Amino acid sequence: MSILDGIYKLQSGRRTKRISSYDRAGFNKDSVPIGAGEVKEIARIEGAGIIRHIWMTISTSDNMIRRNAVLRMYWDGESEPSVESPIGDFFGQGWGQSYPFMSLPLAAAPQGGRGLNCYFPMPFGQGAVITVENDSDLPMDALYYYVDYEEHDELEEDIGRFHAHWRRELTEADPEDGENEGLLEIVPLKPTLDDKNNYVFADIEGKGHFVGLNYFVDNPSPMWYGEGDDMWMIDGEEWPGSLHGTGTEDYFNTAWCPKEVFMHPYFGIAKINEGETGFLGRTHCYRFMLEDPVYFEKSLRASMEHGHGNVLTLDLATVAYWYQSEPHKPYPKLPDRAGRQNIPLLNLHDVHYWRQEYRKAFGGGTKLWGNEWRTQRPQG
Questions:
Q1: Is the pTM of this model over 0.70?
Q2: pLDDT at position 183, please?
C-alpha cells in the first residue's frame, strides 16, 4: 500500500479553503502585525471541517519570539484551548532558536528553519479558532500565515480532536547521591520500582490515542542524559504499566548515546549540543507514533525518568501530541514569560571553576590532574 493510495478517489461533500495573511488591499504587504502583549485571532472557521496544513513565519526584533509567542487552538466552541504551546516548540524549534527540522507531521523549512509547517489533521464539528499571543515587550512586525482546511457537510461521530501541550520542568538530582546514576562508581545503582518522580509529559483524561513527542533537553553535565526509561500508565493501571521502555534514546529509536543529527519522518535528533564537552548543552529529540499510537479508553499518564532513578538535574521541555474525545482535562497554567526563558548555557569558564572546586576538595594540590577521585577520597 502506498501513502498516496486514495489520492485519485473523487470526493463529495467537502470544499477546500484557506485563511491567510494576504494583503486585502491587493498589494504585497501579505502579513499582519501583532503588538506587544496582544492576542491576535488568525483564524475563525464555522461549521464542520478538518485543518490540513498550517504554515507561518515571523519577522520581529525579539530573538526569543518563538518562546515568547504562544499558539492556541480551540475546537467546537470550547473555552479551554486544546492546543497551547510556545509557537517555536509546537513546530519543533526549542529554546527560541531557529534551525532546520524535518518530520512527517512537522517541519521547520529553509531559510534556517524559519518556515514553520504543520500537517497534523485537525478535525472539528462546530467551528475552530486559532490565536497567537505576542507575550513580548516588542511588537511582532509581521506574521505571515496559511491555514488550509476542508469544509465538510458533517463529520463522523467517532472522530477525536487534535491536542498539543507544552510542559517544562527543572528536574532535581537525587537528594542523597546527587547525580550519581551509577556512573561515578561512588555508591551502588538504585532500582526504579515506580514512576512517581518521573518527568510527566502527558496527563490525559478521556478516550484517545497518543501520537508524538518533541523533547528538548538542556543538560548542565557532560554526562549522558539518556538512561531514563519511558513509562506509560494506561487507564489508571499500576506500575510497570502496559508499556515500559529501556532508555531515553531507545524511545526515540536511536542507540548507544547518539550525538549526531538524524531526521527520519517518524523520529530523530534535530539538534545536538555540537562542540560542547560530552553531552553538556541542548539536544532536541522527537518521535511521532503515527504507525504505533498509544491507545487509551479513560486516561494516560506518560513519563520519562531523568536519568536512571531520576537522579539528573535537567531542564526538560516537551510538546506532546494526541487525539481524544472532548471535553479534555484543562491544562495547568502556562508558565509566564519569565518561566519560559532559557537557562544560560554553561561555558569553558564554568568548567574551569568546577576544576577549582575539585582542587579544594582534594586539599588544594597544585598538580592535581582530575582523576584522583578514582582512588582517593576528597578531604573535608
A1: yes
A2: 58
